[in-house]
Design a protein that fits this description.
Layout lengths: L5 E12 L2 E13 L4 E5 L6 H8 L7 E10 L2 E2 L5 H7 L4 E4 L3 H4 L6 H13 L4 H13 L5 H6 L7 H14 L4 E5 L7 H18 L2 E6 L2 H7 L2 E6 L2 E7 H6 L4 H8 L52 E2 L5 E2 L4 H4 L19 E15 L3 H4 L3 E15 L3 E5 L6 H8 L7 E6 L2 E2 L10 H6 E4 L13 H13 L3 H14 L16 H13 L5 E5 L7 H18 L2 E5 L3 H7 L2 E6 L2 E7 H4 L6 H9 L38 H6 L4 E3 L5 E3 L4 H4 L6
Parallel strand pairs: 3-8, 3-9, 6-7, 7-8, 15-20, 15-21, 18-19, 19-20
Antiparallel strand pairs: 1-2, 1-4, 4-5, 9-10, 10-12, 11-12, 13-14, 13-16, 16-17, 21-22, 22-24, 23-24
Amino acid sequence: MAAPLLGVEDLSISYATRGGEVPAVARVSFALAAGESLGLVGESGCGKSTIAFALMRHFGGGGRITGGRVMFDGADMAGLSAAALRRVRGGRIAMVFQEAMAALNPCMTIGAQLGEVLRVHAGLSGAAVRARAAAMLDDVRLPDHDRVLRAFPHQLSGGQQQRVVVAMALLAEPALLLLDEPTTGLDVTVEAEVVALIAELSRRRGTGLLYISHNLALIAQVCGRIAVMYAGEIVEEGLTAEVLGRPLHPYTQGLLRCLPMAGADKHTQPLLAIPGSIPAPSDRPGGCWFAPRCRHEVPGRCDQRHPELARIGPSRAVRCLRHAEIADDPPAPATPAAGDAGRTGDAVEVIDLTKEFAVPRAGLAGLFGRTARLRANRQLTFTAPAARTLAIVGESGSGKTTFARILTGLERATSGSITVGGDDFAQLPVTRRTPAQCAKMQMVFQNPDETLNPSYRIGWQIMRVARRLLAGRRAEAAARTEALLREVRLAADISGRRPRQLSGGQKQRVAIARAFIGEPSIVVADEPVAALDVSVRAAVIDVLMQAQQSRGTTLLLISHDLALVRYVADQVVVLYRGRLMEAGPAARVFAPPFHPYTAALLAAEPRLDKVAPAAPATPARQPDALDPEQGCPFLARCPMRLDDRCAREFPPEQLGPDGHRIACHRPLAELMQQEIP
C-alpha cells in the first residue's frame, strides 16, 4: 500500500505551565490519504485544535510533542528545517481558522494578504496576482472584488472575513487542508457553496481534508471517516455513516442526544446535555476518563482500568469496556408540550417597518459627498405572539439584526411602527426609553465576550442591571442575582469570578441571566448558541426554554441555524434583502408550499442524513444592496422565476392555512410541488 499523505503515530502533546507540564493530547494515531476527508469532533478542550497546530509545528511558546511523530508526504515534520517548514506552511499545508481575525492582519488590506500567499507559494507577481485573487474571491461568493481587495479586515462583516480566510487557504492549492470550524460565521447557503468548493478542490487536486468541528451535521455531509475525541484521546473512530448511525461509545451517543433530530421539536423530544464537563488535563480520573459523566458507568469496573482503543472490524474502533452492552442505548423519552404561562395575544406588532441608511457612493461621487440609500428593512409587517418563540431567519444582509436593533432602541426606523404594550418603539431610541420600557425588553448577543466587562465580577455586572432597571436595594438585587444564577444552572461561586475565568457556555448563561434579571416580557436572542459545543448548546437552549415557560417571556430568535429554529420556534419569519418572503407557524413554514428562497435555505441546510456535499441549486450570490429594486428581490437567484412578471412587480402575498403567508407570483399549488433534497 502507498504511504498515506498524513500519518499521525502515537502523538502526545504537553504544554509547559507555571504548575508544571500539562498533558493535552495522549497517544493519538490516525492516517489520511490524498483526497480523503476525516472529521475530528468533540467538545472544546478535547485536543482537536492542538492536534491541528501540531501538524504544522505551530505551538507558540509552551507546547511541545512529547511522544510519537507526524509524517507528512513521507517526511517527518519534526525533522524539517525552518526554511522547509516555511515552504510547507501555507503552501503544502494550509489552515482555515475558526476566528477569522486571528488569521488576518488588521494592518494590511485583503488584497495585500491574498497577494502575499500567491507571491510566496505560487511565484506569481503583478497583474496575475490580482486576477487570481479576484477569481478566488468570486469562488467564495465575494463578487465585489475591487472593494474587498481594497478593504481592511475590520471593514468586512464576520461572514465576509471567514470567506476571505477560506480563499487565502485555497489559493496555493495545498495538498493538505486543515479546517478548524471553517463555516461557523457563514449562512447556510454560503456554507453549502464553500463546502462544495472545498470538496471539488479535494477531488480535482487530491487534497486531503481534516475537518475540526462540533457540527456533527456538517461532518456527516463532508467527511468519509470520523474520529471522536474526548479529554485528549480518540474514543471512537470509523466510517462516518457507521459511527453516527450506530454509535458505540457513550460519549458519541451523548453528543447525538444534544442535537435536534429530524421531525422532533421542543414538544416531543428533549435535548439532553451531557452532565459535567471535560476534566482538566491535570485532573483526569483513574480508569475511564469519561466515567464521571457517563450514564453507563459501573463502579469498580469503569473506574479501575483505563480502556484501550479496541478495533471492531477493519474500519471501526472504540475505547469503552462496555461498548458491546450499551450499543443500542434507547433515546430519551418524550416530554409534555411546553405551556404558554397563561399569556395570550401578540407581544409585538410590526406594521410597514422600513429602515434606510445613507452610504457614500463609490468613486468620485463619494468624494463629493454624494450618498445612496441602503434599504435594510422594507415594509415589514408581522406579529410575535406572547409567551412564544418567533424565529427570524435569512442570510447575512437580510435585515434580521437591523430589525433587532430598532426593536431594542439601538437604531431608529425610517418609517412604520413597532408596537409593544401600547407603545410605539420604532422611533424611540434606548436613551429616551423609561427604565420600565428598558426592563420590558432585553437582548442576548451572539458573543458574550463583547458584552461582559472583563474588569468586573459576574455578580456585580448582573446586580448592576437589576439596580438600574428595577431601582432595587443592594440586598434585594444580590438575592435576585443568586436565584437567577441557580435558574440558569450556574454555581453560586460564579458571582465572584471574572469573565476570563468562565467557559464559553458559562458566559452565555451569564448573559441569559443578565437579560432575565429585569423580568422582561420580550427577549431578543441574536445567534445565542452559534459558537458553542453541542452539549453546551443543548444546556443553553434548555435554559432559554425553561425561562420562557416559567416567566411567560416572548422570545425573538435570530438565527441561520435552521435545525435550531425548527426545534424551538413556534412562528417563523423569513427575510431576504429586507423584505418578508414567508411567515407563519413553524410547522407550516418547514412544509410545502415553500417560498423558493425558503426552499433554497432548506436545501443548503446540513443534516445528519446527508452524506455527500453538493452545491445548492440556488447560488448564494446576492445582488448589491444598493442596486435599485424592481419586482421580486429574489429574481436573480430564483429557479422558478417568471421573467416578465417577476421583474416588473413585487410579488403579492398569498395566504395559506393557519396564517401562512408567502410573497410569490407562483400560485400555492405550484409551490407545493417543490422537493427538498
